[in-house]
């Protein structure tokens, strides 16, 4: 049965047999590896009330619902044959209360837009490392962003969520009202049984940022591993170190790109934090160096954007491990050596010796290891899909043997090595599944194929 969009409200409905449907379907996905799953209709609401209308329309037509905030799901988790996709991309505004140090965020607000708006009030939020990611999926997956060792995971700054449930009811969930739904909204990721139309969050003071970057040869990994292991042993919570194994854009050779960002209350504090990089001798000579410099988040994003290639095909997986950082770096060098030629990369981080300011208590997440590693397969030719996916899943099989958990926001839950249960502590997984059955007993909301116990 065809439904007239104008009769259903002010938002757009694009049905499978409409002109322009395939363009809209492909535009839902951030990258070019769009899975061959075709929803019956794409709903594009403008308001929370529109979302209620969309859910009720789906119920009338017996359709399951996939939820899309910004389309950065590597596996296109929101796409399912003969379902409805609720595309939240037009819910992209936010309001700030500077004196209260709080904000209301709609789900399609981009990281870069949010942090720029907050900086105008000398405020900040633990936004994600990729500028074009939006807060919807990011916060539901836990939100491991900049300065998280001081500010905590971004989801720990969420005080309430406005949610549309599978039966079409709109509710607000917080620690006192619908606390189980609130718990799910802070880490269950693609398993969340509802549509968040607004996040209520607390804010932080805008820090001073100081940045440096060093590119070293992968052949020198032993010396680099010894150096970074010593740095991590001395590293305070105010310093974030990110290590990428990638192919240099300048030379075409494999390199280890070490990015360090210090967060301080003033320039002197940020400079002192960054000094730890030179307190440990590195036995390898960098091929190039970006000398320490103060920067804002926008410039930080500009440095980080080089890892992400526009117009490419992507697949990813991400693991937490108890391996020490030296061992993980050496393991990463071996895994990266087997990567097909191109812009694929591995991204690593280590927990400093100092404990985080906000431990991950009573959250669904399983990320409790000493180190973190994510694998990103990146390529352009669809004919190379099997080759790159084989490498990704080979890396995943290797890391799965030393993993203590996976990051639900970037886990390969399409048909990967492990199912969704590895993204949660065992007791949390049981609770997630029980609460999903309670809030969505008919299984209205779409989950990816890997959302099952292996």
From TrEMBL:
Keywords: FAD, Flavoprotein, Oxidoreductase. Residues 34-206 form the FAD-binding PCMH-type domain. The keyword Oxidoreductase applies. PROSITE patterns: FAD_PCMH, OX2_COVAL_FAD. Its cofactor is FAD. Gene3D superfamilies: 3.30.465.10, 3.40.462.20, Uridine Diphospho-n-acetylenolpyruvylglucosamine Reductase, domain 2 (3.30.43.10). GO terms for molecular function: FAD binding; oxidoreductase activity. It holds the Pfam family FAD_binding_4. PANTHER family: BINDING OXIDOREDUCTASE, PUTATIVE (AFU_ORTHOLOGUE AFUA_1G17690)-RELATED (PTHR42973), FAD-BINDING PCMH-TYPE DOMAIN-CONTAINING PROTEIN (PTHR42973:SF39). Belongs to the oxygen-dependent FAD-linked oxidoreductase family. This is FAD linked oxidase domain protein.
């Amino acid at each position: 049965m065809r439904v007239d969009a104008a009769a259903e409200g002010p938002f757009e409905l694009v049905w499978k047999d409409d002109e322009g449907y395939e363009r809209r379907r492909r535009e839902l996905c951030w990258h070019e590896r769009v899975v061959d799953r075709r929803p019956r209709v794409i709903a594009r609401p403008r308001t929370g009330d529109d979302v209620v209308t969309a859910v009720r329309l789906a119920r009338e037509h017996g359709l399951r619902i996939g939820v899309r905030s910004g389309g950065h799901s590597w596996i296109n988790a929101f796409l399912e044959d003969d379902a409805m996709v609720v595309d939240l991309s037009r819910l992209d505004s936010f309001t700030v209360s500077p004196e209260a140090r709080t904000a209301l965020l709609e789900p399609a607000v981009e990281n870069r837009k949010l942090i720029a708006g907050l900086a105008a009030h000398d405020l900040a939020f633990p936004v994600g490392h990729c500028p074009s990611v939006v807060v919807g999926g990011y916060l539901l997956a836990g939100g491991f962003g900049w300065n998280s060792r001081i500010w905590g995971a971004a989801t720990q700054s969420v005080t309430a969520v406005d949610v549309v449930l599978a039966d079409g009811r709109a509710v607000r969930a917080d620690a006192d009202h619908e606390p189980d739904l609130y718990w799910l909204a802070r880490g269950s990721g693609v398993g969340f049984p509802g549509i968040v139309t607004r996040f209520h969050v607390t804010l932080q003071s805008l820090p001073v940022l100081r940045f440096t970057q060093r590119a070293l040869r992968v052949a020198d990994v032993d010396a680099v591993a010894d150096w970074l292991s010593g740095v991590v042993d001395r590293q305070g919570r105010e310093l974030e170190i990110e290590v990428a194994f990638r192919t240099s854009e300048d030379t075409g050779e494999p390199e280890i790109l070490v990015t360090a960002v210090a967060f301080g209350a003033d320039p002197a504090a940020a400079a002192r934090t960054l000094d730890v990089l030179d307190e440990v001798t590195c036995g390898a000579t960098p091929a190039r160096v970006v000398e320490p410099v103060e920067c804002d988040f926008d410039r930080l994003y500009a440095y980080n954007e080089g890892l992400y290639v526009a117009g490419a095909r992507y697949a990813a997986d991400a693991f937490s491990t108890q391996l020490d950082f030296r061992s993980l770096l050496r393991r990463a060098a071996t895994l990266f050596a087997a990567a097909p030629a191109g812009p694929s990369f591995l991204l690593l981080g280590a927990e400093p010796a100092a404990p985080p300011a906000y431990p991950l208590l009573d959250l669904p997440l399983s990320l409790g290891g000493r180190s973190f590693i994510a694998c990103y397969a990146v390529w352009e030719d669809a004919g190379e899909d099997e080759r790159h996916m084989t490498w990704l899943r080979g890396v995943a099989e290797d890391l799965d043997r030393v993993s203590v958990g996976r990051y639900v926001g970037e886990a390969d839950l399409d048909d990967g090595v492990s199912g969704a249960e590895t993204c949660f502590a065992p007791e949390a997984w049981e609770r997630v599944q029980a609460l999903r059955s309670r809030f969505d007993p008919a299984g209205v909301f779409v989950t990816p194929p890997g959302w099952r116990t292996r």
